[in-house]
Amino acid sequence: MSPRVVRTAAELRALEGTIALVPTMGALHDGHVQLMKHARPLADTLVASIFVNPTQFAAGEDLDSYPRTWEADLERCEEAGVDVVFAPEVATMYPAGLDDQVMVDPGPLGAILEGEQRPTHFRGVLTVVAKLFGLVRPDVAVFGEKDYQQLALIRLMVDALCLDVEVVGCPTVREADGLAMSSRNRYLAPDERQRAVALSQALDAGVAAGSHGPEAARAAALARLADFGVVPDYVAVTSPDLGDPTPGEARILIAARVGKPRLLDNRALTLGRAPEGS
Ligand SMILES: Nc1ncnc2c1ncn2[C@@H]1O[C@H](COP(=O)(O)OP(=O)(O)OP(=O)(O)O)[C@@H](O)[C@H]1O
Ligand SMILES: CC(C)(CO)[C@@H](O)C(=O)[O-]
Ligand code: BAL
Question: Which pTM was predicted?
Fold first, then answer.
């Protein structure tokens, strides 16, 4: 059955039973469909939001050219068993205007990695996610690990602001060659699409070198990126909660521009101790 499209808070208030929410910015791909399929059995009603959130884009970023594929998105939502697509106008999300004086401050975790490259990004993301939680009032909300720092910050926000929403993370869905699916992949020219596999291969190299410690993991990932001529914005090896890495469970994260689009990827890894004297 086709999902019902709703645009207002009043329509959302009429929803009954438990609610699962999958927030998106549209241009839906199989990664989004997996999030929706994962969310489907978690509640009576499955809501997917489609909203290209202006406040998470800085001036000069790709807000205006961000892909918008409405008809195809509705088909993907239907395929995934979505009941309701919430597609608000900007004024519904930002009734006080885009220079809204009340915004969510992401704190120190919002200032590193992606936050260093995009200083106002997470303020916009957390603000819109908080607004979506307030409007949709979900019992559970599902996000992708592809945007690992975003997922970590949303969990922190839910704890810090005492929001009554269960946050569920889903593994990254990849193309056959390992490239993490992303709405912006469609901007890769054919030769860039081939080079884009550098990110997942660099993560593989980092994971394989992890037994020799975090610096070895980082060096292996950087070397693999260099093989493809890809210069990253960052390659970071962290603890699972994005702090300093210690032996055991850890995370390796990469961001890099390949041609026009800026791509993100990350993987879990297990760190050994760095060799003595390194
Ligand atoms: N390959 C993927 N696997 C799993 N989840 C994903 C994947 N790509 C995106 N998601 C998740 O889908 C949700 C909506 O993301 P969004 O609409 O920004 O898509 P995107 O593909 O990440 O777009 P962009 O190219 O702008 O980064 C987020 O929770 C995001 O982490
Ligand atoms: C969580 C989100 C939908 C907020 O606009 C966006 O950052 C995204 O698509 O990952
Ligand atoms: N998934 C992250 C959305 C953004 O880059 O704004």
Answer: 0.97
